[in-house]
Design brief:
four-stranded parallel sheet; 2 domains; alpha/beta; Rossmann fold
Length: about 425
Amino acid sequence: MKIVQIIPGTGDTYYCQNCMRDRELVMELRLLGHDVILAPMYLPVFSEGEDIGTDVPVFYGAVGVYLSQYFPSLSNAPQWLKRLIDSRRLLGWIAQKSGTTRASGLEEMTLSILKGENGGQKKELGRLVSWLVQEGKPDVVHLSNALLLGLAGRIKNELGVPVVCTLQDEDAWIDSMEPDAARKAWDLMAEKSSDISAFVPVSNYYSDLMQKRLKLGPERFHVVPIGINIEGYGEARLSSERPVIGYLSNMTESLGLGVMVDAFIILKDNDRLKNLKLKVLGGQTPEDRPFLRHLRRKLASKNMGDDVEFLSEFDRNSRIEFIRTLSVMSVPVPHPEAFGMYIVEALACGVPVVQPKVGAFPEIVEATGGGICYEPNDAVTLAKTLESLLLDPECIRSMGQSGRKVVLENFSVKKTAASMLEVYRKCLKG
């Protein structure tokens, strides 16, 4: 099967679930013998520090898209300048400096891309479709997320192939926009959804939510949970004498790192947990640095600076080694999430998780038996829940083993790829 996967690049400066999900799937489908072409948008797509789409141009280059949206007169710029703006060298440099993970300030650009043919990037859409035609007709085109729905209509009409769209956490981006812009975005997405043959949400929770948001019935929704390449995820080296809490996600306030640090400070008041450590991994953007400096000052004021590690390397091998040093993992995200790839990664090493009772977390924890969900999501409740687990090493071990067994059986990328291929086949059959 020939598949084109259209994936936004982010620069690999932070732990991006969508990026890792897409790359793992593409690699597995290729191993299965399918012809999968990865088409990057905005920025180059990296894996383990290497650009994995060098033979494909970057479409909707981040610099050019921004300039065309806010400085439309530059559409008449000379070709040499346009080539420079969209060069992989410049985009690669921008990728390492990029930091925006918020929609605030990008409302007009988000709406413009959703408008597709009627947006400010019409020429770039034409360039993408022309390239798809030149590459030879694929069997399926797969969009990484619903913020790209504006591309689907022209792709479907000019290539005559089904377009599939994965769904994961688009609501977090759109709902952080200015209210009027958010309403327009949801309306546009509902309108453009008619061009999609199948939606692929990553959890039952998110399937239900997006059916309501897009005003659609369930017949075009096919839940395919995220899977990981389980090779190399050895069991954790658990120690009851020196317990370690782990946080694996972008090091940002919006994902609950501040709550995690406050809970850790509370836990350290317990004499039975005087050797407790906290390890934080997941990368950061330039926007996160003031917040991280604040956390370090807070920990230093409590004489706990040496008890917390902020680690910088979060490639696959570094993540596995990090997880294997943990006793328990928690990412106390304040808003609902569609999945939580870090949960699967932790459980693959037999490390149980403690997550707030929001979004898809209860669904995943129940499916794996590898953790505890708590509410309300505040530092005091999190500390109490972690304390009950940290003081019961046998519970940590049994819960971790249960979760590891289920993840290795049901949350591997091999299973994800098989499920995705079945969705493709259903679309091709009409």
